[in-house]
User: Fold Sugar phosphate isomerase/epimerase from Tranquillimonas rosea.
Amino acid sequence: MSGLDAHQLSLNTATVRPQWTLAQCIDGAARHGFGGISPWRDKLHEMGTDPAAKAIRDAGLRVSGLCRGGMFTADGPLSTEVMDDNRRAVDEAATIGADCLVMVVGGLQPASRDLPAAWETVEEGLARTLDHARGAGVKVAIEPLHPMYAADRACVNTMGHALDICDRLGEGIGVAVDVYHVWWDPNLSRQIERAGRDRLMAFHLCDWLVPTRDLLTDRGMMGDGVIDLPGLRRQVEAHGFDGLNEVEIFSAENWWKRDADEVLATVVERGRTAC
Amino acid sequence: MSGLDAHQLSLNTATVRPQWTLAQCIDGAARHGFGGISPWRDKLHEMGTDPAAKAIRDAGLRVSGLCRGGMFTADGPLSTEVMDDNRRAVDEAATIGADCLVMVVGGLQPASRDLPAAWETVEEGLARTLDHARGAGVKVAIEPLHPMYAADRACVNTMGHALDICDRLGEGIGVAVDVYHVWWDPNLSRQIERAGRDRLMAFHLCDWLVPTRDLLTDRGMMGDGVIDLPGLRRQVEAHGFDGLNEVEIFSAENWWKRDADEVLATVVERGRTAC
Assistant:
């Protein structure tokens, strides 16, 4: 299997979060030949959703996802504010034509140690948001986060758990497979197969560095870490994924300090050589 | 369920790693009323295995475990040096009368991205070490480490994976359940039940802090984090665990900087109030 061409890549705006606005990301992704973009909502709101949708269309970019809905446990169990925000996220995903709305579901409720309660709240929040998303024609993608984020970001930490939820909730919900979060899982191959074409809604690339110096912002450029990226790509493609390969690198001490055009050029090069 | 009395606790020497030698740990554990101790091998070697065994016996302490064997992938696939070291670890565990030899199995082989190869090497290393351990009357306990250590410390990261290995290898091998590593796992309850009395060989306590500032050395004192410690204790006890509750806290910026007697007094107090 050969590597990825630029047009198979999507730029997640987190990769150049401190350097570029969404307008600059759209322009940069197009200049470097990317096939798509995946905005975070803070940058989307800065630009405005309608102007962003138009600029993305005009640049000929696909939208591999919108980051992110979820955080259902933030205020305790499913506050009106949280649910309203998730409905707005669905609507924004529809406006920009995103392939899916990526869900970071939230961790433990404030001052709680009750993980099963968090699981229940999250599933209820997903179910309600999915109702709205089906009406809006938006697919909902649960992103299982690495278990090191279970307490404070997402209490769904394996593909298996995410797909159990999908099984219960039915049509229109699937998974966003980010290699950083799931690469270590001995059940990963089975769960990718279980997910199948309809539920493999996004595929996110970066790398796991050794050592990793920060739990949040020390992700690696593809090829600089230990994840078998070609192997994982082969697996999701074998089971029907044909979306863009979205590059999302949180890197406070390295890539966020570099010139953004250098970052994108490196992403394109590593897409070819390391994926 | 009431909390733990001091005599139900075991002091893992890592909890006061920079402060105390093994001789001091033995003395301190006894003074504070602990039921046992679990030495790391570096401290054991400093003191000498035979003198340590005698001092532990004389202090009336049980040995809840020896930390640690494993690291099978350190030199690539199962070097003579690694296997010899594991045999020595078994012999030391026998000499000090440890309830089990705790196994931190090792991560990816050097310069490798091949996780299935690491799994295979680890299982072969465990099988060979187990042969020797059976002869020596030593139980072998696989400690699944948190997935954030998959690359560089242990590629067995769930109870499920560890028990799959145990199923294949048979008698004399089980698991060391450290709450820090497994608390997030949606399959944990099922796997504790699956393990059962004979394979629940050790139970390690500390806590998961929010935020966690370092991947290695920012573990919390029981009660300072988000893990449902009474709930997990209830589960392992319900399925037959009746060993000591071993306290192992890596805490470079907090507990390792305090007076060791203060640390042990706090452990005893939190055993009562937070476990």
Q: What stands out?
A: The mean pLDDT of chain B is 97. Chain B has one domain: 6-274. Chain B touches chain A through 33 residues (CB under 8 Å).
